[in-house]
Amino acid sequence: MKHRHFSGILLAAVLAFSGCGAGNITENDTIPVIEGYGEPEKIPAEYAECFSLYEYANGDTMITMDDGSMYLITDGSPSGISDKITVIPREPDMIYMAASAVMCFYDALGRIGDIRFSALEEDGWYIDSAREAMHSGDIVYAGKYREPDYELLLSEGCRLSVQSTMSEHVPKVKEKLEELGIPVFVDRSSYESQPLGRCEWIKVYAAIAGCPELGNELFAEQKAHFDELTGITPSGKTAVFFYITASGKIVTRKSGDYIIKMIELAGGKNVFDFPGEDNAASSVTLEPEQFCIHAKDADVIIYNSNISGEIHSIAELTAKNPLLADFRAVKNGNVWCTGRSVYQDIMSTGDILTDMHTIFSETGDKTAYLYKID
Predict the structure, then answer these.
(1) Is the dihedral of CA 353, 354, 358, 364 positive or negative?
(2) Which of 25, 114, 173, 313 could link 82 by a cystine bridge, Cβ 3.0 to 4.6 Å?
(3) Per-residue pLDDT at 277
(4) Closest Cα partner for 199 from 209, 189, 207, 191?
(5) N- to C-terminal Cα distance for the chain?
(6) For position 339, what pLDDT does the model report?
(7) Count of CB atoms within 10 A of residue 299's CB?
(8) Own/partner pairs for 146-153, CB < 8 Å, 24+ apart?
(9) How far is it, in rounded angstroms, from Cα 280 to Cα 328?
């Protein structure tokens, strides 16, 4: 773990990076051009729709987002930089991680050591390396994303804050961090419409960490799982993906949700067809009776542990709702549960797809991210 303690001068320099200068950025067919930099080379994304990467001749990298935000990764101090651009120091350490889905990218890149501050406490992490780093003190809790410990971040020299789009609900936090000279990067991977689009964000964090080649390799490894299943014959088996709230209601997902898309890619068919995109509003809440009418004959149950926790027996499942005892999948012993790490581990997307295919093709019970309920 590298610990850097910034002096006031260095903090001021970082502030200058992201401060208000002359607005000299132009858009040429969506390609960001900065005065004196020349035209950059675009690095095409294969599946991601929410970011673009550009490389300039001097080695700097620009990340542009679908919401219009722009981030320049650089070693230097660009003069007259537009206030439309957030400047990120190349290979930053002392990062404040306030986007839980992003930790898996740093884990896959072997760069957990770049993270110093967490918006989750130790028991909130399901990525082993993150939990271990917090246990050892290499990563420290620095307050929730909506209430950061500014004094701690400033005193230890935080160099970058990575936030989820939840931060948009508390804009004053971003304003305060930037006022303190801490650049803020807002992750938008959850807005990708394709499973591999989410996974491709490894390239963004590899660019920030200064290891783009490794990012490409890691993405290719996950993509290979999808390629192996291209053109497979559907199994004909139906599935239902859901969890039960404390009040007893059933929460499933719309057709555009990435998990539902993966069920279909793996050879299954979701029993519900609620149209909609994969975003924060892609959940559908149903009354138990309405849910049971449509889902009782599903061949496979996949219980979502992310909100209500893991289940480990049929008795636990039916205790949540006795009507489930009459479900075909329960009677046939075809009930599965996601591990709690699934939503924090985007870089296992291809492995999870393989698990699903194993379930639908009935080629065994050996899975890594989904487990069978006895």
Answers:
(1) negative
(2) 25
(3) 59
(4) 189
(5) 42
(6) 86
(7) 19
(8) 146/170, 146/173, 147/173, 148/96, 148/98, 148/119, 148/173, 148/176, 148/177, 150/176, 150/177, 150/180, 152/117, 153/96, 153/117, 153/177, 153/180, 153/182
(9) 31
Q: Is 44 exposed, middle or buried (0-12, 13-18, 19+ CB in 10 A)?
A: exposed
What count of other Cβ atoms lies within 10 Å of the Cβ of residue 70?
18
Structural domains present in the chain = 8-223 (3.40.50.1980), 230-372 (3.40.50.1980)
What pLDDT is stored for residue 3 in this prediction? Answer: 39
Helix (H) or strand (E) holding 35: none
Q: For the chain, what is the largest distance between any 2 Cα atoms, rounded to a whole number of angstroms? A: 69
Residue with tokens 């722009």: 70
CA distance 22 to 353: 48
Kindly state the average pLDDT of the residues 268-283. Answer: 77
Tokens representing 86 are: 């957030």
The identity of residue 353, as a single letter, is: L
> What six digits make up the tokens of 299?
């061949």
Residue 51, beta-bridge partner list: 65
Q: Residue 41 CB: number of other CB atoms within 10 A?
A: 11
Distance CA 328, CA 340 (A): 25
Burial class (CB in 10 A: 0-12, 13-18, 19+), 52: buried
Q: What's the pLDDT score for residue 124?
A: 93
